[in-house]
Protein 1
Amino acid sequence: MLAFQNRNNNLTDIWVHFERYEETIEGTRRLPKEHLSPVIERTADDHYTTVIFVDEGISPPGELRVSLRLTAGGGLFHGMGQDTYRTEVRETVPAGTGGRIIVDATVEKY
């Protein structure tokens, strides 16, 4: 789980990019895709829903734009380069919205 903390009551837009590159893969093949957790529901191939949480004591002064990106994969398996995947969430949260918010996520080969 990721947590972003704020020292005052005004929340600004959030943009974060995480990357995990695997140098080698030993003994087992990786799963073909990476996902943000939890996966609430699969809505289509390469699309699913996950959750962001905005503390009810913190309210954005206007719309809050949340952009999360996870890039993972790569490495070698039996000498062959493996695919890299990107999981991304782009969501605009209306002003005054708080608590658990279900958002759409996508997975694509990068």
Protein 2
Amino acid sequence: MYAKLAIAAAIAVSVGACAVQPYESGISGHSPANFNYKSDGENARALLAASESGKAQTWAVSESSYGAVSASGPAYPDRARRQCQPLKHERDGAARQVTACKGADGTWVVAEWVPDKGE
């Protein structure tokens, strides 16, 4: 009987812990990086558009939330035969080099590493 109560209590605590908001502010879009969902969406759209077209893309949500993405070199196939595009990625005043590669299924992967070029 006590074992069943202990198991039920453990399950109730586990379920309750899952329902707790991870951030105290309760603001929609709050994240540890302090970006809101609108800026994350605009950033993702700019990365995708620049990867697809190779043309510079900019976005701005507010004076403190803005960015730009531009090609930083020619597109090339990597060893896995994915089309890769080196990009200069700027967000809220910070810049970094990233590489976007498009898989056979059409999914883009953006990373800070550069895959080896094909031979």
